[in-house]
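Protein Record: Sequence and Backbone Structure Tokens
======================================================
Tokens: labelled as protein backbone structure tokens, with as many entries as the chain has residues.
Question of interest: how does this chain fold, as expressed in backbone structure tokens?

___
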Amino acid sequence: CGGLKTCHTLGIVHRDISENNVILTKSGDSWQVVLIDFGNLHKIRADAKKDTTAVGTIGYAAPEQLAGERADARTDIYGLGVTMYHLLTGQEPGQVRDGVFQIRRCRRRLSRKLGRIVRRCTRPNPDQRYPSCEDLRKDLENFANRKKL
């Protein structure tokens, strides 16, 4: 979320969030998730109704992205949600029935709250997703902090 927030603050959309484009690195005693592969970066243009090309990884790209419509922060949030789904369940996004990413369908022991977070990220309608990576980060941190109690 931090790396995407930086991109979005600069007016850039990554457009290719998947588990292939995030890596885990160790820094001292802590681990960090690092965003890589910036080959599909796109400048956010509020006045544009469409993007020039439909790009991204099939299964991870947001519906509006595949349709060549305008990409914004919510487009990357969709890709992040699908990536979380894949990492949490082990299921390929293309195996999801009806396009509804419900982690508890595959892993009943996963938290309902975490399921709601992933589901909100992956709503087909961008207006129903998190409006920003900062809002998503807050919900993920609240979830993580409750799990420690």
User: Anything to note?
Assistant: The beta strands are 12-13, 22-27, 30-35, 42-43.
